[in-house]
C-alpha cells in the first residue's frame, strides 16, 4: 500500500475526511476506495447510480466527490452540473472526474461542467496524491455565474489537460492587475446574470449576490469608495428578500456604470 508521510497526511486530511465515489464499476470503485483510505479517509461511500447521489450528498455532506464520466445510469458531467446548481451544503465541494476517456473534448467537457480535477485511468497512487494535494494547497476562486458554476476554469489543474497553453491573463500578475481582473469578471457576470435572468431566475439571483459580495470586499480592499457604495446598494436590495429582475435592474446598472467598456464588451 502506498504510504504518505505525516506532513502530507495532515495537509490533505480536510479534503479526504468524507468522500463519495460515484462509479458503476465495483472493481474500479473498490480500488479507488482502498487508495483513498490509505490517504487517511475513514468515511467513504460508493454509489453507482446518478439518481441517488444528490440525496446521499445531502445526508453525508462530503468534502470530496469522485465521479466516473459515464456509465449505464451515470452521466458524470450532468451530475456535476446538478450538484453545482443545487442548494446542497456541499455544492462547492471539490470534484475529481475519473475516466479512461482522456480525449481533449472529454477533459474540456469535465472542466466546463465544474470539476476541479481530471484523473485518467489507469492511474497510480502518485497521480491521485497530486490531484488531492492540488485541492488542498492550490485553492481556486469560485465562479458563480448563470452559464457556469464551479472553480475558475482558467486555473484548471489537471495534469492530463491537452488543450492550449494557459493564456497570458493566467500568468502571475501584480496585485493591481489581479484586483482589476476580479472586478472585470464580476462585472461581466453581473451583466450576464441580469441578461439571462428570465431563463434561470434562481441562479441569476445567486450569481448577482455572489458578485455583490465580491465587489464589496474588493472595494474595501482597494479603497474604491464609489464601488463600495454601489455594491452596498445592490446588497441592500438583495437582503430585502424575494429579489426580482425589476427590483435588481436599477442597482445592478449603478454598479455596471463603474465597469470598463472593455470588460462589458467581453461579457457578450
UniProtKB/TrEMBL annotation:
PROSITE patterns associated with the record: RESPONSE_REGULATORY
Keyword Phosphoprotein among UniProt keywords: yes
UniProt-annotated stretches for the region Disordered: 156-175
PANTHER family documented for this protein: RESPONSE REGULATORY DOMAIN-CONTAINING PROTEIN, STRESS RESPONSE REGULATOR PROTEIN 1
Record SMART domains: REC
Keywords: Phosphoprotein
Ranges for domain Response regulatory: 18-136
Record protein name field: Response regulator
Pfam families: Response_reg
Superkingdom: Bacteria
